[in-house]
TrEMBL record:
<feature type="region of interest" description="Disordered">
    <location>
        <begin position="165"/>
        <end position="202"/>
    </location>
</feature>
<feature type="domain" description="Cytochrome c">
    <location>
        <begin position="79"/>
        <end position="159"/>
    </location>
</feature>
<feature type="transmembrane region" description="Helical">
    <location>
        <begin position="18"/>
        <end position="41"/>
    </location>
</feature>
<feature type="domain" description="Cytochrome c">
    <location>
        <begin position="214"/>
        <end position="297"/>
    </location>
</feature>
<feature type="compositionally biased region" description="Low complexity">
    <location>
        <begin position="171"/>
        <end position="202"/>
    </location>
</feature>
<dbReference type="InterPro" id="IPR002323">
    <property type="entry name" value="Cyt_CIE"/>
</dbReference>
<dbReference type="InterPro" id="IPR036909">
    <property type="entry name" value="Cyt_c-like_dom_sf"/>
</dbReference>
<keyword id="KW-0349">Heme</keyword>
<keyword id="KW-0479">Metal-binding</keyword>
<keyword id="KW-0812">Transmembrane</keyword>
<dbReference type="InterPro" id="IPR009056">
    <property type="entry name" value="Cyt_c-like_dom"/>
</dbReference>
<dbReference type="Pfam" id="PF13442">
    <property type="entry name" value="Cytochrome_CBB3"/>
</dbReference>
<keyword id="KW-1133">Transmembrane helix</keyword>
<protein>
    <submittedName>
        <fullName>Cytochrome c5 family protein</fullName>
    </submittedName>
</protein>
<keyword id="KW-0472">Membrane</keyword>
<keyword id="KW-0813">Transport</keyword>
<dbReference type="GO" id="GO:0005506">
    <property type="term" value="F:iron ion binding"/>
</dbReference>
Amino acid sequence: MSNAHNEHDSVIKTPKQLIAAVTAAFVIPIICIVLLVQYVANIEKEGAGSDAQTAEAIAARLKPVADVGFTLKDANAPKVLQSGEAVYKAVCAACHTAGVAGAPKLGDAAGWTARLGQGQEMVVQNAIKGIRAMPAKGGNPDLDDVEVERAVVYLANQSGGKLKEPAVKEAAPAAAPAATDAGAPTASATQPTTSSPSQQTQALAAAAGAATGAAKVDGKKVYAASCAACHDPGVAGAPKLGDKAAWAPRIKQGSATMYEHAIKGFQGKAGMMPPKGGSAASDDEVKAAVDYMADASK
């Protein structure tokens, strides 16, 4: 009986324990409420009583996302030339890392020996102008000649060569504008800015003639001059001329997509297409070459 009685005994056995329990029952909730109020009060508030409606805060919220992380560039500022390693990684690595189409691999001293024997000037000129399956400037016509030479030096020196870094010529100072007499009228002020109806007609005829000429571009000739080096042997994953299976998914994308990939360049899973095949062809010539290849591969 005594054991059964002890099992139902209360934890509070003395008046002091009862007072402590009652006090805790009131104090602990109060402390929790105070801490919660402080937490809420410290949260950054939007609206009245905060800085959210200041002109600076509103301007920051309305700032276009495209501006974040970008700095506007001055189009007239001198071009910042890339290092040889940067050019290699961006342009050359696609072929020279794997040795595509016989390209000498980075670090392959044996593959570079014969080329370095031609001299630095010849190796650089071949890289700038293109040779065999190597497109001019690696397929990026926007590269400066100095950037191409830096990439060649980086490639060669990583492969046992000892080529010298190219010297960068300082830009010539801009010519001062010709002085004019403030009192004399300029040519633009003395001549009318509007053209006569006959001049407008001639301009429209010239534009129509140019459009007609663009439509008559011989895609076959452009292909032979600019595209055959890669698309005949299928270099770097390029679809071969006449290969219906390889061209079918590309033709399915539509002419607009094929034009864009050919003009701007394209990096695919099996290889890469340099802009305009690394040539100096016009957009109309590239489109004509694409049409020729697509028609011949249907």
